[in-house]
Amino acid sequence: HIATVTAEEAQALVAEDAVFLDVRDEADWDAGHVMHSVHVSLDDITTHVAHASRQRRVIVASRCGVRAEEAVRHLRTGGVDAVVLEGGLLAWQAAGGEFVATGGGPACLV
């Protein structure tokens, strides 16, 4: 069983210093991502497990949540308190969450 949080719970956890980790591809990240989030593509997640914070909860997001579930499995195996953003970034957007684009242009969720 993979632990999840709703978009509203995630927003509160981020306000309390949780890490927001986006595991989409770089092009998707560049098009639009949550402000102050960290980007590590799913392909690179196993390399980054050793560097992940074990003092802060990590909220893992992908567009709809499928890649996030796989990333959380890797992170939890490495001892990280990681949870999936239920419904992914689509749910974040539906809950009023904002996005920024790399380079400062208009952001969109890809």
Q: How is this fold's topology laid out?
A:
Blueprint: E1 4-5, H1 7-15, E2 19-22, H2 26-31, E3 38-39, H3 45-48, E4 58-61, H4 66-77, E5 82-85, H5 88-94
Give the beta-strand count. Answer: 5
| Spatial shape | globular
Strand order of the largest sheet: 1-5-4-2-3
Q: Tell me the major beta sheet.
A: 5 strands, parallel
Can you count the helices? 5
Distance between the termini: 27 Å
Q: How much helix, percentage-wise, in residues?
A: 25-40%
Q: Which stretches of 5+ consecutive residues score pLDDT under 50?
A: none
Estimated share of beta-strand residues = 5-15%
Task: Tell me, rounded to a whole number, the average pLDDT.
Answer: 93
Structural class: alpha/beta
Sequence of secondary-structure elements: EHEHEHEHEH
Radius of gyration: 13 Å
